[in-house]
Design a protein that fits this description.
Number of strands: 13
CATH class of the largest domain: Alpha Beta
Number of helices: 14
Protein name: Caspase family protein
Helix content: 25-40%
GO biological process, one term: proteolysis
Organism: Massilia litorea
CATH topology of the largest domain: Rossmann fold
CATH architecture of the largest domain: 3-Layer(aba) Sandwich
Low-confidence stretches: 8-32, 276-284, 310-346
Shape: globular
Pfam family, one: Peptidase_C14
Radius of gyration: 23 Å
Structural class: alpha/beta
Number of domains: 2
Keywords: Signal
Length: about 450
């Protein structure tokens, strides 16, 4: 009798621990949660797909009741449009993140092939001294002020520009109304065209982010686009149509990643954007009640996925030192190198820093003109960017110690200003050791 009781107790303990883990680990919630998307919302999705020319697209319910894309798509741009429609009607949580199986032309296969083909012997033979190039975007207020609240992007960008110039970078900047979609895309194309393998590249972006979309890697490897000064349209009041317009008028992070995958001596990227469900909460929409219930009354939030810039997706996008030959140990009976640092080569440095983890907002003082203190300093801007570059000065440009201090400061500050209701935990990925990773 005692043994039976102990077995039951052990089983209950396992189940309780499993449920606790499921509720706390990001990405596991859908496995243990059943979604009941109302049929009228499914009908609205199908109608909106047809209205936007996606006549071969379809949707089905997955095993947990989420809406999953089915049917066929000409390319990943069509898939993106379909995800925008589904997410805007039923919400991010009720949308299955897995890509449809029938996509005729995949974006990264063609782009990776072009990138590798472009790395010719001519680029190897270039013996000119390497340059330091920085591309900085920062926006405080937006043309569509109805839907985009002010953020301290320009304040942050000016601090970044000063630090980059001090470190010897030639800075290309777009601030405020200069940072239109056309201007950002043109600048990205120009930097990509002129970048050489021996150069060092630094990219900084501080603005709003759009609703994140799934990637072909599936799971929670979501990516998001960058809101330009002229993104959006204040006259559109229908939520799916607004999101579709926003997708068209924002700058795809594909373009930033395309620049990041160019062969360089080193590449540094810092993204200080967030997506907040509060951004468009004022748009009237019949699905708002369902989405609110699914999120227990809270606005839906998600953020840039570090996984979309690293791991298998990272190397699949061709981010590698193109003038490096195949690993020397291949063909000699030794195991192939499998780590990301090995894939990139010992001479290639790559760093990606995001100001938040997924599902978090990038926080700053509530009043755009307010300042906050860090030691004896008075800083104006977002908590993470301002703290990171202040600590970077103290660390003489060394990234790791500056990041660790800024992350701890940001985490504590987020808890303080929100009275424990919000978190902000910045993330950092690098391919080289701490003693070599400096701005």
């Amino acid at each position: 009798m005692t043994n039976s009781f102990l077995r039951v107790l052990a089983l209950l303990t396992v189940l309780l621990l499993g449920g606790c883990a499921a509720s706390q680990m990001h990405g596991y919630e859908p496995t243990y949660y059943s979604y009941n998307v109302p049929q009228p919302l499914l009908d609205a999705v199908r109608l909106k797909l047809r209205q936007n020319g996606l006549v071969d697209a379809g949707i089905v319910r997955d095993s947990t009741g989420r809406v999953r894309l089915a049917g066929s798509y000409a390319n990943e741009d069509e898939v993106d449009r379909a995800f925008v429609i589904v997410q805007s009607i039923v919400g991010i949580k009720s949308t299955s993140p897995f890509y449809p199986e029938n996509v005729k032309l995949t974006r990264w296969e063609s782009e990776a092939s072009r990138a590798l083909a472009a790395n010719t012997t001519a680029s190897r033979a270039d013996t000119r001294p390497g340059r330091r190039i920085a591309f900085v975007v920062g926006i405080n207020t937006f043309k569509d002020s109805k839907h985009f609240k002010p953020v301290p992007g320009e304040d942050d960008a000016r601090v970044v520009m000063r630090s980059a110039e001090k470190a010897g970078y030639s800075v290309i900047s777009l601030l405020g109304s200069q940072a239109t979609k056309a201007a950002i895309e043109a600048a990205l194309a120009r930097v990509e065209r002129d970048l050489r393998p021996q150069d060092s590249l630094f990219i900084y972006v501080s603005t709003h982010g759009t609703q994140p979309l799934p990637t072909p890697q599936g799971g929670d490897n979501r990516r998001m686009s960058i809101v330009a000064w002229d993104s959006g349209d204040a006259s559109i009041n229908n939520e799916p149509d607004y999101y579709l317009n926003l997708q068209r008028t924002a700058v795809s992070d594909t373009l930033v990643q395309q620049l990041a995958k160019k062969p360089t001596r080193n590449t540094r990227i810092l993204i200080d954007t967030c997506y907040s469900g509060e951004m468009l909460r004022g748009l009237p929409d019949a699905s708002g009640g369902y989405i609110a219930r699914t999120n227990h009354g809270a606005p839906e939030r998600a953020g840039i996925s570090l996984a979309s810039w690293t791991g298998p997706a990272f190397t699949a996008k061709g981010i590698r030192q193109a003038f490096e030959g195949p690993p020397a140990d291949l063909g000699k009976g030794k195991a192939a190198r499998t780590t990301l640092a090995d894939e990139l080569g010992s001479e290639r440095a790559y760093t990606i820093i995001t100001a938040t983890s997924e599902g978090e907002q990038s926080l700053a003082p509530g009043n755009p003109d307010s300042t906050f203190t860090l030691g004896a300093r008075q800083l104006k801007g977002s908590f993470f960017t301002q703290a990171f570059f202040a600590y970077l000065d103290e660390a003489q440009g060394h990234v790791e110690p500056a990041f660790e201090k800024a992350r701890e400061f940001t985490r504590n500050k987020a808890q303080e200003v929100s009275r424990g209701e919000r978190t902000q935990v910045p993330r950092h990925f690098a391919t080289q050791s701490a003693d070599r990773n400096s701005l």
